[in-house]
Amino acid sequence: MKKIIAVLSLILAITFNAQGQEVKKVSLEQTKGEFTQKEVKLTPGSYIFDITNNNAGTDVGFVLIPEGADASDAKNHIKEAYVTKVVTEGSTESSNTVTLEKGTYSYFCPLNKTPQYTLIVE
Fold first, then answer.
1. Range of the structural domain that residue 82 is part of
2. Residue whose C-alpha is closest to residue 19's, from 97, 114, 116
3. Is 31 among the domain residues?
4. Does any domain span residue 1?
């Protein structure tokens, strides 16, 4: 019985440790036709993107894709990175949790017609 309890305790400890991975926040701001942050560097891990609309003149959103992927094809979008609702002027909205691995990504806003910017995970 002691062995069973010890094994269950070990399994629970591993499970809680894996679930306890820290989720970090990345804050990005959009103004008219652009993001104010032109490049972002992160380490591998889990992130929530907070997108602020600072007088962009239109509602804004957020799209994240692997570098080189066709941005016009929604199947290439990392859908967890979408904000959970459109960001109206003067407000901030968040994405769901996104787990990023090493690599290079591009981010942009099709609503605000921003260029594509670089997000590097190293």
1. 22-121
2. 97
3. yes
4. no
